[in-house]
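RECORD TYPE: inverse folding
INPUT: structure tokens
STRUCTURE:
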């Protein structure tokens, strides 16, 4: 079977290899084997390839934080999934054709979810949901400001927020995105820049912004913090600029703004397996209803992984880059 392996940590398109490796074999008791039908290339996967992610396993390492698969075989004692079920996997190393995992790591999802969307169910939808629920208490009519608003997570924040009556100001890098984001429920859109706080205040009509959500870090984070009301909260969950968080000490000390960091695994880790399954059941139902789709720019075969990771790093690429390791989806 084919598997992506890193020959070294470095420039992603130069270090990814599509190698032939031994098949995973038959599942033992409590185990599940599934064929990987699709995986996305997320910013965290790119960071993994460069060696700058929090995990840096010994080489040759296989990236891949999420995927959708189809169960090929189950071991003795596995009853919550059956052969043919579509599943998502709570474990990593998914840039491959086949996985053998512990049964408790796979969660069955409705077969009606388009595979391209199901491949992106595991990480970004719960991230958006927990950013809105776990950082500060938000109620209907509260305002939230977020950057990278046209990213997959950003779009999900808009949609999940709208469903709860939460209003969003959406910070992007170009005005041409406004109409699309407004059509999906964005209350206001602004282009990032030095006077962001004034333009966000104009967009909300001066209403206080309770939460700022950042995935850029660097000075962009300080601009988001400046938009947040006194005693408001800022959470950072990504670093698309590659920088460290920057925040004005006046916002922290004089205005009482709090800054915290979000990582999905840490926040899911506070919940039981039953609660985690319930989160994915609810998000899966939303996805099945077509309420949580994210744009896909292109789907590559696994043999073209180097091209796929290069494409995933382009600006304004217009959607996720996916890989379908077992044929077209
Ligand atoms: N902490 C967690 O648990 C967690 C979970 C999921 C995702 N994340 C993070 O969330 C962020 C978004 O992920 P995603 O999968 O939704 O991304 P995505 O769909 O691949 O989109 C990437 C976004 O980043 C923007 N961007 C790229 N470089 C930038 C820069 N230098 N400055 C400002 N914006 C930039 C792009 O804007 P353009 O369209 O203008 O190019 C685009 O909006 C990433 O940082 C990711 O690591 C974190």
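DESIGNED SEQUENCE:
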């Amino acid at each position: 079977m084919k598997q992506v392996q890193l020959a070294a940590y470095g420039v992603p398109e130069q270090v990814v290899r599509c190698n032939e490796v031994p098949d995973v074999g038959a599942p033992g008791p409590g185990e599940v084997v599934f064929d990987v039908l699709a995986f996305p290339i997320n910013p965290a996967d790119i960071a993994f390839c460069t060696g700058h992610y929090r995990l840096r396993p010994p080489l040759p390492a296989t990236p891949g934080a999420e995927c959708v698969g189809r169960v090929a075989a189950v071991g003795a004692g596995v009853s919550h999934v059956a052969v043919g079920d579509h599943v998502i996997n709570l474990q990593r190393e998914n840039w491959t054709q086949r996985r053998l995992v512990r049964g408790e790591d796979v969660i069955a999802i409705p077969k009606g979810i388009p595979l391209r969307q199901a491949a992106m169910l595991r990480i970004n939808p719960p991230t958006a949901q927990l950013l809105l629920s776990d950082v500060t208490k938000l109620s209907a009519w509260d305002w939230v400001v977020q950057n990278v608003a046209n990213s997959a997570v950003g779009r999900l924040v808009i949609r999940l927020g709208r469903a709860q009556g939460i209003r969003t100001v959406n910070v992007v890098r170009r005005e041409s995105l406004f109409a699309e984001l407004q059509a999906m429920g964005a209350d206001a859109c602004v282009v990032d820049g030095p006077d962001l706080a004034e333009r966000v205040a104009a967009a909300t009509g001066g209403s206080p912004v309770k939460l700022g959500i950042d995935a850029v870090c660097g000075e962009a984070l300080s601009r988001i913090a400046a938009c947040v009301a006194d005693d408001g909260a800022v959470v950072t969950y990504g670093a698309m600029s590659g920088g460290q968080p920057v925040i004005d000490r006046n916002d922290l000390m004089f205005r009482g703004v709090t800054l915290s960091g979000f990582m999905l695994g840490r926040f899911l880790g506070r919940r039981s397996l039953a609660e985690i399954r319930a989160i994915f059941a609810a998000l899966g139902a939303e996805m099945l209803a077509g309420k949580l789709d994210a744009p896909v720019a292109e789907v590559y075969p696994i043999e073209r992984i180097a091209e796929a990771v290069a494409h995933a790093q382009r600006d304004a690429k217009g959607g996720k880059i996916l890989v379908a390791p077992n044929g077209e989806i």
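NOTES: The mean pLDDT is 97.
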